[in-house]
Amino acid sequence: MACTAIEGLTRSLAAEFGKHDIRVICLNATALADTPRIRESFQKYAKSAGWLRR
Predict the structure, then answer these.
(1) pTM > 0.90: yes or no
(2) Which domain does 22 fall in, by range?
């Protein structure tokens, strides 16, 4: 829950400060498996490790 709140705060701050050319970022150490890039990376890794037979 806290991570979601931090990401929401980051988006709000980015929207507010962006008009003043101030960039706000949030670094997240975990990958969201539902994003296309991460899903693709997981599939490539699984295939190279022999876990996926596609």
Answers:
(1) no
(2) 2-48
